[in-house]
Automatic annotation (TrEMBL):
The lineage of its organism: Bacteria, Pseudomonadati, Pseudomonadota, Alphaproteobacteria, Caulobacterales. GO terms for molecular function: ATP binding; phosphorelay sensor kinase activity. This is histidine kinase. It catalyses: ATP + protein L-histidine = ADP + protein N-phospho-L-histidine. Its EC number is 2.7.13.3. The modification 4-aspartylphosphate is found at D528. Residues 479-596 form the Response regulatory domain. It is found in: Membrane. The chain crosses the membrane at residues 44-69, 96-118, 124-144, 156-189. Pfam families: HATPase_c, HisKA, Response_reg. CDD domains: HATPase_EvgS-ArcB-TorS-like, HisKA, REC_hyHK_CKI1_RcsC-like. Keywords: ATP-binding, Kinase, Membrane, Nucleotide-binding, Phosphoprotein, Transferase, Transmembrane, Transmembrane helix, Two-component regulatory system. InterPro entries: CheY-like_superfamily, HATPase_C_sf, HATPase_dom, His_kinase_dom, HisK_dim/P_dom, HisK_dim/P_sf, Sig_transdc_His_kin-like_C, Sig_transdc_resp-reg_receiver. GO terms for cellular component: membrane.
Amino acid sequence: MATAETDEVRAPPVAGVVDVNLTTYQLALSAFRLPVSVHALANALTAAGILLLGHPMLAACLFVGATAFDAAMQRILGHWFAESVGADETAGHRRLALLSLARTLAYTAPTLAMVLAGRGVAELMLFGLQLATLLMVAGGASALSPKIFWAFAAPMAIEVLVVAAVLLPPIAVLALLPAALVLLAVFAVSSSGASTTISNWHRAFMQSVAERAAADAAREAAAEASQARSAFLATMSHEIRTPMNGVLGMARLLRRDEANPGQAERLDVLIQSGEHLLAILNDVLDVARIDAGRLEIVAAPTDLHGLLDRLVAFWTPRAQERGLELNLRMTPETPAWVMADAVRLRQILFNLVGNALKFTDSGSVDVIVHATRRGPGEARVRLSVRDTGPGIAEEQVPRLFDRFSQADRSDERRHGGAGLGLAIVRQLVELMDGRVWVETELGTGSTFHVELPLDLASAPAEEPDADEHLLSAPFPRLRILAVDDNPVNLMVLDQLLSSLDLVVESAASGPEALAALAGSAYDLVLSDIQMPGMTGLDLLRRLRAAPGPNQATPVIALTADVASGGRQRYLDQGFTDHCAKPIELADLLEAIGRATSASAAALAEPA
């Protein structure tokens, strides 16, 4: 049973122009559909030949009868084509064969009568040319269906036998009969083979079309799923970071004022646990960014020595807690400054060193760096992290850098983790045109190697460290408006900044903030972004559009959304600066320093 993929199927205007969704029956119908004028011209030429041979009545019968039949036939074909969607192909071919048989008889009967009446050589030659033309049509029809071929060939064969029986002696008829049978057999075999070939080709073609359509549909579904996943991750990131801002903010405030060593230790555990949760969340977001092609490597002059020193200093307390040695070894050839994405390079090493410390129970972890100069301005830097841990089984090594793959698959899961760290390392290294691999021996330890091609750089001109100044020197007594629909976030901001002798006022919504800003001047606005009713961006636009005491007041975006563009996105939208949640006091003070410095510089410029 034939099927169709579309609600409407329209026949092509001429033979040979077909839709890829047509069935073999519909292809046959298309092949027979020709303008009536073309048939009328062919009929007129044949009728003219009969007329010139002295048979005017037969010529008129052929032209009128065949042309009328052709007109009716085209209407019938059009009707059948309109109803061909889902039609039984076998029955359809049978109907076409009967129609072809009738058309052949209507076209050849007057010529046969002419031959039998005139019995001249000219009549026989005209009849032979007509049959040869129909034989060519039959050969073409053989590719569509054997039934249609025989509908053309059978009446012609009978007519030839009739002419032979009338005009030739019996012995001559018997002599010609084997040749005629061979000719028919050849055409029959050719018809069957051509029909089978065309049918197989059409089936394969339609299967290819169906597979491509399925692939396109799967690709679209995958793209939609990817977009849905990205939106889900962005939403979940925001929803997790918002309460974590309160948890970590309050824990850090308590830790700062806590004098009891036991309580301080408990608060440290709380803070470290919260930061660990955020690290897992960041890993998941990085995987989503890499999959979407939105994670870019931004190279800038980087102090490689300083980055490594800070990395080791960060992990040293953790190593000491576990009774391990953490060593940094750099060869003299290691360049001091390179062009690299410092954030991503630190992330790679952070994951490798963190893993080494996690899986090593005794001994040491060594960070080893050496470089090979490849030219006047380029070096190949190899960063290796070697541990004295348990090593990795050989069968686990090929899957080690796959997502969610973990060396510790036991029920105990002593070491935890989401199984994303090494997968992210591999993908970041590949984005930096480098390579990563591991050398390991069970019971001895493992060494992870990262090799990166890095351009050499010069140290930038030294400038006063504004951030350091912000943390060490007292702030001017700024008047700040904090805007957030979450009361816990407002409490964290108030207590963080009030301790620095800053005046903090709160607004729980955008309209409430606009009312406060219309009444008196502020030095700074700290605004959440995702708020019901009026977003932080809407608040900023209204503030900048309406004249008032705070039309030019710097506004810092405070947001838990880190999945849709980061700091630069908010700067492009018109915010003076940006700080991500959970809020780190140092990051917030840096943002405040940059925002107030930029505002002061703008006011100092001559009009």
